[in-house]
Amino acid sequence: MAQATTHLTQLNEWQALLAHQGDMANVHMRELFNEDPQRFQRFFAEAAGLSLDYSKNLITAETLKRLMALARRCQLPERIEAMFRGDTINVTEQRPALHVALRNLSDDAIEVDGQDIMPEVRATLTRMEEFVWRIRSTQWRGFSNKPFTDVVSIGIGGSFLGPKLVSASLKPYWHGQLNCHYVANIDGSHITEVLRHINPETTLFLIQSKSFRTQETLENTKVAREWFLQNGGSFEQISKHFVAVTAKPEAAIEFGIAEENIFPMWDWVGGRYSLWSAIGLPTALTIGMDNFRSLLSGAHAMDQHFRQAPLEKNLPVILALLGVWYGNFWGADAHAILPYDHYLRGLPAHIQQLDMESNGKCVTQQGDPVDYQTGPIIWGGAGANGQHAYHQLLHQGTCLSPADFIIPLQTHNPVANHHAILFANCLSQTQALMQGRTEAEARTELEAQGLSPDEVNRLARHKVIPGNKPSNTLLFERATPRTVGALIALYEHKTYAQGVIWDVDSFDQWGVELGKQLGEGILQRLQSTTAPSGSSDSSTDGLIALFRNRHHNGY
Ligand SMILES: O=P(O)(O)OC[C@H]1O[C@H](O)[C@H](O)[C@@H](O)[C@@H]1O
Fold first, then answer.
1. Mean pLDDT of all residues in 228-232
2. Is-catalytic flag, 335?
3. Structural domain boundaries of the chain?
4. Which residue has a Cα nearest atom 13 of ligand 1?
């Protein structure tokens, strides 16, 4: 879909932001807070059980006005509607991106090619419900008639990170009898370590692959099947233990999965947006279908907010525009996701795929090279751990990485005074990033410690913290299925809104394909038992030779 921003950087709204950044360049956030006692209330928004304090940003009301003007000029409201309507917003693959349909709990129809897709979505949820019930109630058992104790999900990328994040986030809701494991990597150690601890009689394998042709997933599935057959299982019993989720059922059947054990996926769901589909089965098995539906309802609440709230109060839009502000006007090329919640520690990895695979693009939807920065490097980890490691760079380093601090008001595990201490750590970080410490303050502190004037002179400048580093604080009551659903959907929509501003296709991932294509040729050269034919660059050839010397003496 063409939009009005082919020359984004030439737009008046873009130029106005450039000029405004010049005005803001020497303003310190300390001053902004001093000048306006209402700053917290002014830059605070809520939706779907999430609260966003975005007052600790390098912004004024004027900044927001100009960012909103850019969003309107880029037709963001129309593009949001286009996504919900099922328009072909994935232009290179010529299809809609309808993850919102998977959590559409309203009665509204959503059409793809004139066909309402909601009946199929609802029917799949009902099938999942029945399946989850049969496993959890022990109606469906393993080959020796024992109930299942372990679920192993085999999948990678979007068929791994999302469900793994949700499973870990909702550990307090796990069914006591079922353990959940994930195998993704084509590194024998991953599957070996999982198989080492489970029993084939009581293990259910879920093969998760939209395309059903992902090398890592298929190779790991072969290993799992072989292990099953060598440890008491038979060919006839495979259907009791192997279930697949895929948009290519014929490939799964050919691979040996029983037709009745295949759950559908659809072309109109991107892998990194698929945890809401049957790809969420490992999660649904462990937390139960009621909780899985709550997860969907949280995401649905965020969907409605994204679709209906004015841009000025719209959480995903605010986060998206702040990202544009820093990436395109302040030179930031990274963004940190810092969950202060043990259960949410997988969030950075999921958002990393979601955001970087969606907006790591260098041409517009029309294929023209962009002359501005698109998606940032997403990184992060759990707080407070990071404070004792990489936060140093946030405080005193030379690169700018705005950060989202994410923390619940209440913990699932009230141990001693831990949660208050955790909360205090989180707030002290955002405060330190914002206000920093001046040289005068550093000197006063050193003098108060009784240091000599020489020592004060020697140390003061090292103790200066520039501050003025932007952060958002995202709060919610507790990590429940509903809030986790809303939180993930928030980042999905932020990603889409940024893709709209940058005019990129947020739903394809052609860059990933090149490595896969080259990998096939290299594998052949590594494994051929005769002298390998073909050559490429000297580095790759040299590394291939090292591997071959180790594995095929003589060649
Ligand atoms: O679900 P699959 O078809 O196996 O794909 C798994 C993953 O692999 C690909 O390489 C893509 O980069 C991901 O977006 C995708 O989620």
1. 97
2. no
3. 8-74+309-435+469-508, 102-294, 511-553
4. 157
The pLDDT of residue 532 is: 64
Q: What is the pLDDT of residue 130?
A: 98
The alpha carbons of the chain give a radius of gyration, in whole angstroms, of: 26
Our mutation pick for probing the ligand 1 site, out of 214, 219, 221, counting the most ligand atoms within 8 A of Cβ, is 214
- Does 8-74+309-435+469-508 carry CATH code 3.40.50.150? no
* pLDDT score for 121: 98
Strand 377-380 and strand 334-339: the pairing is: parallel
The C-alpha atoms of residue 162 and residue 151 are separated, in whole angstroms, by 16
CA 434 centroid distance within chain: 26
Name residue 380's beta-bridge partners. Answer: 337
Report the atom number in ligand 1 closest to the C-alpha of 513. 10
Q: Please identify which of the residues 99, 181, 248, 357 carries the catalytic annotation.
A: 357
Give the pLDDT confidence score for residue 4 in this predicted structure.
Answer: 45
CA pair distance 59, 24, nearest whole angstrom: 8
Nearest atom of ligand 1 to the alpha carbon of 158: 16
Considering Cα of 263, then 268, then 271, then 277, what sign does the dihedral take?
Answer: negative
Tens digits of residue pLDDT in 187-204: 999 999 999 999 999 999
Please tell me if the domain spanning 8-74+309-435+469-508 has the same topology as the one spanning 102-294: yes
Q: Helices 315-329 & 61-73, crossing angle to 10 degrees? A: 100
78 alpha carbon to ligand 1 midpoint, in Å?
A: 29
Whole-structure pTM value: 0.96
Helices in 368-509 by DSSP H: which ranges?
Answer: 391-396, 418-435, 439-448, 453-460, 481-502
CA distance 148 to 176: 12
What's the rounded Cα separation, in Å, for the pair 328 and 311? 20
Q: Name residues contacting ligand 1 (CB within 6 A).
A: 156-159, 209-211, 214, 217, 271-272, 357, 509, 512
388 included as an active-site residue = yes
Q: How far apart are CA 98 and CA 83, in angstroms?
A: 7
Work out which ligand 1 atom sits closest to the CA atom of 274. Answer: 16
484-517: pLDDT as tens digits: 999 999 999 999 999 999 999 999 999 998 888 8
What was the pLDDT predicted at 1? 43
CB 435 within 8 A of CB 467: yes
List pLDDT tens digits, range 119-130: 999 999 999 999
- Domain covering 102-294: architecture: 3-Layer(aba) Sandwich (3.40)
For the packed helices 76-85 and 481-502, what is the interaxial angle rounded to 10 degrees?
A: 120
The reported pLDDT for the residue numbered 60 is 98
Give the pLDDT score at 552: 72
Burial class (CB in 10 A: 0-12, 13-18, 19+), 27: middle
Q: Over range 367-371, report the average pLDDT.
A: 96
